[in-house]
Amino acid sequence: ISRNEAWVWNVFDLYFLFVYFCPALYLCRDFRYKRFAERLAQLEEAEGAFDYFTLSYRSFGIQRRSDNGLVLREWAPGAEAVFLTGDFNSWEKQSHPFTQKEYGKWELYLSPKVDKSPAIKHLTKLKVLNTSRHLMASYNIWKSIYVHKSGQWSPESFQHPRPPRPSSLRIYEAHVGISSPEEKIASYRNFTRDVLPRIKDLGYNCVQLMAIMEHAYYASFGYQVTNFFAASSRFGTPDDLKHLVDTAHSMGITVLLDMVHSHASSNTEDGLNYFDGTDSCFFHGGSRGNHSLWGSRLFNYSSWEVVRFLLSNLRWWMEEYHFDGFRFDAVTSMLYHHHGIGTSFSGNYSEYFGIHVDEDALVYLMLANHILHKLYPQCITVAEDVSGMPGLCRSIEEGGLGFDYRLTMAVPDKWIQVLKEVRDEDWDLKNIVQTLTNRRRGEASITYAESHDQALVGDKSLAFWLMDKEMYTNMSALTAMTPVIDRGIQLHKLIRLLTHSLGGEGYLNFMGNEFGHPEWLDFPRKGNNESYHYARRQFNLVDIEHLRYRQLYAFDRDMNLTEDKYGWLAAGQAAVTTLNQADKVIVFERSNLLFIFNFHPCNSYIDYRVAVEHAGKYKIKLNSDELQYGGHGRLVQDTEFFTEPMPFNGRAQSFLVIWRLLKNIALK
């Protein structure tokens, strides 16, 4: 049984757990699997096969036949009439009505023109007008339609296969629109040309793209989706995005999409809200269908057609754009009726099983993972869950939800809390190590020191917490480091390497943070006079040789390359052999590597004994004190260390680390 925190057991604890609690857990597991199996069987019986069911995007929306006739099909069960309008009919409201079909579906056929061309030209602007009387009076709903299939975008010819699934996942979290130093919305082409080579050079083997699903409000960071079957047009064309993905694959880079199936924009002009004139078409009706904090709509996962819509959406992104998997956003909001609002999770199992759990949402996630992994065995799914739901990353057959990884969201919060509230000399290393290692066994985690959340306005990145305003004036390597910059650069490296090596089975970094990006992230809005000044990433700083951002970049690159060579993320959890609070020293072994960290703000050690499992000779493989990383170059890099059969800290072998200064090293 996996636990969220360390427990000290006595005989009564064990008796209570196994006699009383385990049967309840097994019942919950069996109940969830039974509901999943029943739903899958119903789906396959009614639709023929889940493969066909999840390809429904090929029959809904706008479809072009071989003779260039166009078939338009929508699901709007509450509508009394549905019409198509747009440029092609001079925006005439009722000249092109749909025909009502069974189960709330509507259909319209447009025959080809005399010259055999489609009735609607490529790039034509269209809207659907739905009429309903559910809201006291006639209610007109205008909806934009994405015209991918009408004109159409000739499919980009993918030249490169999906790369093999990485055994060690190193994720570069990125936003296309802010990927340029210029004060503008950057494009897919810009990202392909300028950012992908940097990701490759840095040693990341996966890019996670945010804000790709179409969203009307740029400042929503892509989390207020208005069109689930459209790549955001503000960054370029569908072909541009396909070229980005194909280019990444040519570099051996896996591409994940930030998938928002937890909620949708409440917009009625261009979103799903009130699509058929009711508040319960795709969403729960009444207050249950509204997220009280986000102001967005919440899907009804018990609805057959909603499940069709969402599962087809996953297939569409996999098939049309060749994504390699998804990072599912806000899974906590999906899993619980309380959506995590005002709830603190302690790890008690009663928090994860009961009537407060949205079993329909849970079954939907099981279906999504089942279908994705059956159809695409190399697919990667990541869950953003703050609650610590047990079984999130266990197999569906075990009653788990089937995700491959979960995000360890407590780790960045811990680093921010330490930097904000604790003096260097008072750092509680035991608490830090516990936070980094406190994860469910048998469930892979992706750990990060900071993500886009910490970069947003209102918070600060690690670099900004460490160095603040001095980043604007004192980052030149042509002058001596100030105490603030010296401390900031050294801790920036140590925090990231400790998180990388001790924290999980995968690692994530938000774009720009690898080199200590000097500013927060703020999208154009009324509050900042629609400015793009902070809606950018200043990669140009890395290209200036005398700036210390280049040194942080180099360390991040070599940290990833060292992991790529030795594979500690794919290894078992580290064995911590030294956790000395007074010395501020952490020593642990992982993947035949020995990691030694000295977090003491003042003390260095010239002869420090460390324990090792394997006898032999050890050499320095990564040293944060090298000059190229902004260190002080106080260690002899080719020093060799030989073990002796002296038991120490639970190991049969040990050796003395003898040199003039110990700062931070990885030894092999």
From TrEMBL:
Reactions this protein catalyses: Transfers a segment of a (1->4)-alpha-D-glucan chain to a primary hydroxy group in a similar glucan chain
Enzyme Commission number, as recorded: 2.4.1.18
EC top class named in words: transferase
Pfam family membership, one: Alpha-amylase
SUPFAM superfamilies: (Trans)glycosidases, E set domains, Glycosyl hydrolase domain
GO cellular component: cytoplasm
Matches recorded under InterPro entries: A-amylase/branching_C (IPR006048), Branching_enzy (IPR037439), GH (IPR017853), GH13_cat_dom (IPR006047), Glyco_hydro_13_N (IPR004193), Glyco_hydro_b (IPR013780), Ig-like_fold (IPR013783), Ig_E-set (IPR014756)
SMART domains assigned to the protein according to its UniProt record, in alphabetical order: Aamy (SM00642)
Active site: D329 (nucleophile), E384 (proton donor)
Pathway assigned in UniProt: Glycan biosynthesis
Keywords, ordered alphabetically: Glycosyltransferase, Membrane, Transferase, Transmembrane, Transmembrane helix
GO molecular function: 1,4-alpha-glucan branching enzyme activity; cation binding; hydrolase activity, hydrolyzing O-glycosyl compounds
GO biological process, one term: nervous system development
Chain ranges passing through the membrane: 6-28
Family: Belongs to the glycosyl hydrolase 13 family. GlgB subfamily.
Name assigned to this protein: 1,4-alpha-glucan branching enzyme
